[in-house]
Structure formats: structure tokens, C-alpha cells
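We close this part of the discussion by returning to an individual protein. The sequence in question and its C-alpha cells are set out directly beneath this paragraph:
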Amino acid sequence: MQEKALQNAAMKIVYQAYAPYSKFHVGAALLCENGEIITGVNVENCAYGLTTCAERNAISTAVTLGCRQFIAAALFSPNSQEYITPCGACRQIMAEFMDSEAPIYLGNAAGEFTCRKLGELLPMNFKLES
């Protein structure tokens, strides 16, 4: 049930993305350990290096709200026929707050989703032990 709610949240929020340059809109949804779903979208800037990905915006919002452990994530773009995947930087930041076994639901323009574990997307991630 949470899987579908997470996917729906990513699909719903994507239309808030600010992507006037690439026209590539991305929505992300995170499932916090307390059951709350936090969303984010990509926000572009004319200086492309200042663009922030949807995943990182969702993580920043969640951390600001006090959530620092995520159970699962979903990504969606209506602009991709292929399943959308997080960039390398987002994969590493996700690894900071998620277990390598955490499911990451990857969506495509048809509204279909596939699932990969975070460890499949970022094997041998850099993580300091606490």
C-alpha cells in the first residue's frame, strides 16, 4: 500500500518542477521511517551547475522536518519513456540516509514503475560508520 502511495506522490508533485531550460520534470517522494511521505521536484537555474535534483530537494525538506532515515523512494518523470534513475550525486546522498536494501521505485512516462535496491544503483557506496 505504501509503495503505491509513494509512487502516486512522485507522480502528483512532478508538475511543480521548475524546468524551463531542459523541459525535463522530475518528482521524487521519500517514505520516512515514521510513515510520512516527503516530496521534492527539480529546480533548474540558467547556470546549470546550480540546478537541484528532485531527490536532493526531497531529502533536504525531510531533514529540515526532522526525518533522517528513509525506508523507500520513488522517482517519476512524464518526459522519459525509460525508467528514470537518480544521478550519481543523488545516489550518494540517498545512501547517507537509506539502507542499501531500500527499494527505489523508478517510473516512466507511462506511469509504470520498476524497483531496484539502492545498493544496486550505488554498489560500494562511500559511507562513514557511526
About this structure: The longest strand covers residues 70-76. Helices lie at 2-13, 54-64, 88-97, 118-121.
